[in-house]
Structures are given as C-alpha cells and as structure tokens.
C-alpha cells in the first residue's frame, strides 16, 4: 500500500483527475509497476475541514485494505491505521508482553492506543476480556472486523481519545464485577512516537484498580517523560 500526500486545494477538478490518472498509470503501467504496489490511495494534506481529526484519504486503485498475520490471527489494515510492519518482531514483542503480564482467566486487558487491535486480540485467548481504545475511527473498525473474522468474542473496541476513556472503561469493568476481589486489571499502553498526552497519563494514574501497566515505547525520550510522570509523587498536576 502506498499513500502519497498531496496539497490539492489549489487544483480544480480537471487538474486533480489528470494528476490521479497519471499517478495510477505510473504505479500500474509504468516504472512504478516494478514496485509491486497492490493498493493505492492519496491523502489531501491541505487544511482539514471542521471536525476532521486526520487528513482524509481517497482510494485510487487496487485493494482497499492490507492483510497480515500475527500469532496465527489475520488482521485487516486500513491506510490510516497503525500496524507493526515488522511482523516477526511484533510476534516476539507481543509474546513477551503476554508473558510479562501473566494474564489469568479472570483478567481484563485494556489495550490503549490499540490500532487494529493486534495486541488485545493476541491477549484474548489468555484472559476474560479485552477492551481497546483508539483515536483513529478506521482503525477501530478494523479491530472490530478482525475480532469477528478471527471468531474472538470477548472484546470491545471504542473510538476516541484515550484520556476520555481510560477511567470510564476501567470503572465499567469494576462496577459490573460481582466480586471486586477477583478483578485482575491490566493496561497495555502503546502510544504513538510522541508519547501519551499528559491527560492520558493522569487518567492511568487515577485508575487505581489497575494492577499492572505495560508501556510499549518507540521513542525513548517520550517514554522517559511518560514514565517519570506515571511514577512521580502526587502533585498539583498529577494525583
């Protein structure tokens, strides 16, 4: 899949169509064909419309989604969704996370910044339930689809900001449990390169029912900042 980013706001309809035609021809009939692209989109990098969280993408040719396999599970991937492209490395990473968390039959795993649901769905057979949260709506649709396609029935996925959902989904599980002492709540945080927003960190700190928190880092500096904020004493900013 390739998604060229373009500033198209100054193009009229005819100019845009001509450009899309030339782009399609390059990747399907000309030199670009050698790359073997099987899915082609373009993304408008111009000013977003009111209410848009991300610059929109438009499908041009080929497949609408990619698919990949991790831990024997099949995953559909949309162009705006995050997915670990090094699947061999991802399998090792996810297994280490599962081993570290040591989930039990009564465990609930909160997959924060869940993308297409890969981590949570890999956990699903090891725990009671999985709840995923992700800001990219298309990724959540992928996660729901992936759960269904893999016949995984103990998951829920929500589209929205992590800081808006973390404490509410934890409370949802706590309030629905008949025996609070049997709860085993685990949070897996897999934020983007910029790290977790301070509001999300505050929400994790405030979810006192969590027994384990796993943080997956792809940016050491952002991770260091988040780790310090997670562990520092109470203050005006963090309770």
TrEMBL record:
UniProt GO molecular function: RNA binding; tRNA (uracil(54)-C5)-methyltransferase activity, S-adenosyl methionine-dependent
Enzyme Commission number: 2.1.1.35
A Pfam entry, by short name: tRNA_U5-meth_tr
Domain of life (superkingdom): Eukaryota
Binding site for S-adenosyl-L-methionine: 84, 134, 190
InterPro entries registered for this protein in UniProt: MeTrfase_TrmA_AS (IPR030390), SAM-dependent_MTases_sf (IPR029063), TRM2_met (IPR045850), U5_MeTrfase_fam (IPR010280)
Cross-referenced PROSITE patterns: SAM_MT_RNA_M5U, TRMA_1
Claim: Transferase is one of the keywords in the record: yes
Alphabetic keyword roster: Methyltransferase, S-adenosyl-L-methionine, Transferase
Active site: 218
Catalytic activity reported: uridine(54) in tRNA + S-adenosyl-L-methionine = 5-methyluridine(54) in tRNA + S-adenosyl-L-homocysteine + H(+)
EC class (word): transferase
A biological process term (GO) from this entry: methylation
UniProt family annotation: Belongs to the class I-like SAM-binding methyltransferase superfamily. RNA M5U methyltransferase family.
Designated name of the protein: tRNA (uracil(54)-C(5))-methyltransferase
Organism: Megaselia scalaris
């Amino acid at each position: 899949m390739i998604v060229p980013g373009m500033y198209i706001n100054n193009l009229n309809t005819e100019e845009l169509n001509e450009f899309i035609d030339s782009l399609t021809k390059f990747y399907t009939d000309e030199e670009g064909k050698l790359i073997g692209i099987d899915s082609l989109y373009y993304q408008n990098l111009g000013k977003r419309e009111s209410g848009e969280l991300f610059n929109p993408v438009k499908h041009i040719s080929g497949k609408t989604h990619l698919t990949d396999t991790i831990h024997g599970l099949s995953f559909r991937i949309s162009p705006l969704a995050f997915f670990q492209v090094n699947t061999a490395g991802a399998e090792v990473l996810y297994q280490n996370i599962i081993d570290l968390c040591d989930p039990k039959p009564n465990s609930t795993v909160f997959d924060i910044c869940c993308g297409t649901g890969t981590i949570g769905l890999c956990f699903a057979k090891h725990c009671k339930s999985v709840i995923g949260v992700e800001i990219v709506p298309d990724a959540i649709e992928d996660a729901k689809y992936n759960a269904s396609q893999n016949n995984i029935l103990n998951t829920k996925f929500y589209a929205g900001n992590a800081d808006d959902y973390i404490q509410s989904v934890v409370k949802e599980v706590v309030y629905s449990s008949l025996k609070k002492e049997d709860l085993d709540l685990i949070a897996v945080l897999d934020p983007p390169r910029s790290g977790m927003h301070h509001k999300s960190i505050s929400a994790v700190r405030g979810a006192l029912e969590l027994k384990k928190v796993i943080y997956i880092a792809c940016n050491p500096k952002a991770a260091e900042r988040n780790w310090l904020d997670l562990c520092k004493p109470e203050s005006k900013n963090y309770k």
